[in-house]
Amino acid sequence: MSLNVFAVLGFYDTLIIFVRIRALIENSSVEPSQKARFLASLAPHSGDWLLALPIANCGLRLDDEAVSVAVGMRLGLSLCVPHSCPCGEQVDGCPWSPCRGV
Questions:
Q1: Domain count across the chain
Q2: pTM exceeds 0.70 for this model
Q3: CB under 8 Å to 31, separation ≥6 — which residues?
C-alpha cells in the first residue's frame, strides 16, 4: 500500500471515531452543560491556548494559579472547595483567597 492509502484510512478512522463519540454523547443522559463542554473540546483549535509560548515581555505568561483556574473551569471542576491548609487553618478553597498563615 502506498502512503496515500494509509493517510486516507487514518482520515476515515478519525471520522468514524468522531461520529461514534458524538452519537454516544447525544444519546447519553449526561447534563447539558457537560455535553456542551465535551463537544466544545472536540472543536478544531479548542486547545490551542495550551500551545501558546509563555513570553512574559508580550504578556503571554500565565502563572501557575491562572493555569489551574483556567483548566479547572475548562473541565467544569468545583474550584472553591473548603479544606485545611498545611498551617492548620480552615480555608474556603478559592484559588484567589490563599491562606494567610503560609
A1: 1
A2: no
A3: none
